[in-house]
Design a protein that fits this description.
Chain lengths: 264, 300, 318
Amino acid sequence: MNTESSPVFLQVENLQKSFGGVRALKGLSFKVVPGIIKAIIGPNGAGKTTLFNVITGIFPPNDGAIALNGKFIEGCQAREIARLGVSRTFQNVEVFGRMTVLENVMVGRHIQSRAGIISTGLRLLGMRQEERQIRESAMHHLAFVGLENRTTELAGNLPLGEQKLLEVARALATDPKILLLDEPAGGLNTRETEGLAALIHRILEQGITVVLVEHDMNLVMDISDEIMVMNFGEKIAEGKPKQIKNDPLVIEAYLGEEVDYSDL
Amino acid sequence: MTKITLTGQLVQYLFTGVTVGSIYAMVAVGFNIIYNVTDIINFAQGEFVMLGGLIMVFFTVTAKLPLPLAFVLTIAAVTAVGALMERFTINPLKNASVLTMIIVTIAVSILFKGIAMFVWGKDPYIFPPFSGSKPLFIYGAAIQTQTLWVLLMTAVMVVLMTIFFKKTRYGKAMLACADNPEAARLVGIKVNTMILISFALSAAIGAVAGAVITPISLMEYDRGALLALKGFGAAVLGGLGSFYGAVVAGVLLGIIESMCAGLVSSGYKDAVALILLLLVLYVRPSGLFGNVEASKIKEF
Amino acid sequence: MRSSNRKALFGLTLFLILFPVVAMNVSAIGHYLDVMIFVGIYCLINMGLSLLMGYAGQISLGHAAFFGLGAYTSGILCTKLSMSPWLAMIAGVGITALVAYIVGVPSLKLKGHYLAMATLGFGVIVHIFFNEEVSLTGGPSGFSDIPGLSILGFSLDNDLSYYILVWSLVVLTLIFSLNVIHSRIGRALRSLHDSQVAADAMGVETSRYKVMIFVLSAMYASIAGSLYTHYVGFLSPSSFDLFLSIKLVMMVVVGGMHNIWGALLGTWLLTFLGNEWLHVFHDFDILVYGAILLAVVMFLPDGLVHLVPRVSRVWKRG
């Protein structure tokens, strides 16, 4: 099957997920076509991060289907999904704090390498060549996000903005077809956010589809091709940034977040 | 004739099982008290039982104190040991990893074992049963009166613990810590104090167990580890954190072990409890009586 | 290999060459060669334990069982079936790996305290097995007359030759382990230690690697067990009890569990303490052990090896 010609890259149908009695996703459906930047927005607690966690296999869904290139992946293990070309970053940064920056990205190359315990233990020739490739590729991805001068530092010692970039480099190192960014601009200053927008565009140029969850509306409106709006585990709107800006349901959802009278 | 003997034997095994099981139950409850408040499994739990037994020997045999006084002093001494342990080893290590906490409590258990060996040597000790050594005969089985003391003490402990956790201010506060330490702190509960009390209390229960079992099974310095392991087995079997589960599972474990020792092989009796522990851990870590969802929400 | 490791390896090799020269010429420490053989045997086990604890973040309180399995397999096959010791050693490694795999798969699904108790329970069960299967193991009194080792007809029956054998194996295993640590597998292990969820998302087969390292560490312990058997020539269950499992973990922790060199340092220190220097204390060595372990965990959580860079800095400053 030719994956490039497939019009729908990621398809989610009627996805449901509950935690105890709380229904975080209530039958969500949407599509992502290849080669775009798609943003998912919505008030806190709308279920955006849960959606990412279910797509990447951290939790299995209670019901519904997720298809990647026509292949159903719901309920697969996280590591299997990673091998299918889905990579991600985390809202609450999850770098490997006690490893160096370079080593973090080298872990990203894990699924693209295969040396086993015997060939690594004995440092066989093939393993040494592979190790050199892993290192070169990791350096390349670090340079891509602009962290090439930080390689030997411990990841845990980097400032938040750089940790977020490191997560992007690590995710890119897996050679993903689709990259899920969970609030990449959270905690960044204006200058860093501008850099991030440029970075996301460059990622797209590499042929990688980008889906991001983000609160920074300027960034979202600026870079997205499509936006999906979620509230209380459901999709309330979907379309081009212009359409979303003027959608009454969206305005209501966001007003409701800012001035929540129902809780008083 | 053989029939009566068999019944007698079975009754004998049953009583032995319930007795030993009660001790496992008390160790398991000790684990649960600390686990509920701190999420720590105290590997030195068995050492409290060992210390309870040996200190009781000291007060009754060496110091020749009257039994009730010796009993109270023993509990007080071991309680103090538990409190000291918390103050000097657990309290300073806030935010340590699980691995570190495991190793710390193991280190303390080795230390207690070493101290006990230093003081009492390697020989097993005994002191006379609480109410004489003349056995009772039930269905042809000879039952030591001390067995009844063990059962009585277990029952008393169950009642006291229930009252403590359900009725008293401290007990309720400790349960609150177990539920949500941050929230407990916010409403003004001193979580530090509660952790201290949990160690003291669980040491006290260990002391009671050690004091009542020593006239039956003797006590020596290195008994703690196996007691802890089996007590932990009972705690897991009953659902970690569950109080009644621990008691039921402890007694059950004791009976299974004693039946196996009597009817199958005495050499493998220790293995039976442990194999059971492994099976439960592998197949149903939430325990026989706990349900999987509830194992997340700690209940006492 | 990293330059710091290369330097340390060079230092270790130099020490290992000089040690017998000194020990055999100073009569007061002549028997230290014998102690060093035990140090080497325990180092083999503890390098595996260090990989497991320090790098994979998993605890095992049952490694004495794997040590024992290797020892008993070697002993039984050599005496009862007159098998060649080297074949028996390989058979021991195979059997131990199999047992470790069977125990490891379900055990390593458990976390923290549960895993600790499960491995502890496993260790005690194996110890009971050694005690009870009298026809196979000789029961509590064990069995003796286990033949020594020889290479190409050259018998390794004196301390020096056995020292060379044991420590060659230690150095080779160390190099193997260091290579694993500084590879994709080592990085995968350390990554799951830092963030399991991110490691999963990077496609690292976390559970597979945990089991792999568990089995590898059991294999190290099994080889150590075989070497022990042929050196001592006598086996009894008391050499493989619960306290040994705990002592092994102690050695790793005291030396520094996040560094394989720490395992070597801790093993060396505690074995010499236990076999030699604590004899002054006679029976209450347990007390001293407990105190040392507690002090290290409380005040030096990264272990003694953590002091080495500081000491060398002071040294260089002169």
